[in-house]
Design goal:
Largest sheet: 4 strands, mixed
CATH architecture of the largest domain: Up-down Bundle
CATH topology of the largest domain: Glutathione S-transferase Yfyf (Class Pi), Chain A, domain 2
Shape: globular
Helix content: 40-55%
Oligomer: single chain
Radius of gyration: 18 Å
Number of strands: 4
Number of domains: 2
CATH class of the largest domain: Mainly Alpha
Length: 212
């Protein structure tokens, strides 16, 4: 048995987890999950049936990890990856990892769904204030930092980088110079290219009606 079981559909946030798995050279068994047929093993591990879901098989037993930001950091921690933050990087690493999981994702989804924040009271209630402010804050950081923690790529860049990569590709984030340059930097990672090639091939099969 491989060290990890990876429940995924390539047309989902599971692409983030696959990239993370490749960054740490994890030994994993991929389990394709059709949209209309959640396997019992997935539902037993994650009652919401959400993707990605990862099971880490250890001598102590099986550990279930869900939520992409948690998956990314867990994989780095479990494999003692050099992509973990160093002591001087921890503040930036965790700040932006959770910024991506909270304000950034909320702002992008709300904007895409046209759930607009219209007044100051609503800005105080939501976790991101406004879409424009969220974009400004992240872009200002990326204008002066090659990666989330400065000059060094860390696992936080897998998560935030995935969101920016997706955002500028599918127009859910503005094509600002800071975002475009950052997306291009993370796309140069060999693990990104390996994982993306797998998912793109599977998506092509799905569209052709041959997957599953």
């Amino acid at each position: 048995m491989a060290g990890f079981t990876f429940f995924f559909n390539p047309m989902s946030r599971a692409q983030i987890a696959r990239w993370a798995l490749h960054e740490v050279s994890a030994d994993y068994d991929p389990v394709f999950v059709p949209w209309d047929d959640r396997p019992a093993a997935l539902l037993a591990a994650n009652g919401m049936g959400k993707l990605p879901t990862i099971i880490h098989h250890t001598n102590e037993g099986d550990h279930v990890i869900t939520e992409c930001a948690a998956v990314c950091h867990y994989l780095a921690q479990a494999t003692h990856s050099p992509l973990l933050p160093q002591s001087g990087e921890m503040a930036d690493y965790f700040r932006w990892l959770f910024f991506g999981a909270g304000p950034l994702e909320q702002a992008v989804i709300s904007h895409s769904m046209k759930w607009e924040v219209t007044d100051r009271t609503q800005e105080m209630m939501v976790g991101f204030g406004s879409y424009e402010r969220t974009m400004d804050v992240l872009e200002n950081w990326l204008k002066t930092h090659d990666f989330i923690c400065g000059n060094r790529f860390t696992m936080a860049d897998v998560y935030v980088g995935s969101q920016v990569d997706w955002g500028v590709s599918f127009k859910t984030m503005p094509e600002r110079p800071g975002f475009l340059a950052y997306a291009e930097r993370v796309r140069q990672r060999p693990a990104y290219q390996e994982a993306k090639a797998i998912d793109n091939a599977l998506i092509a099969e799905m569209k052709a009606g041959t997957s599953g």
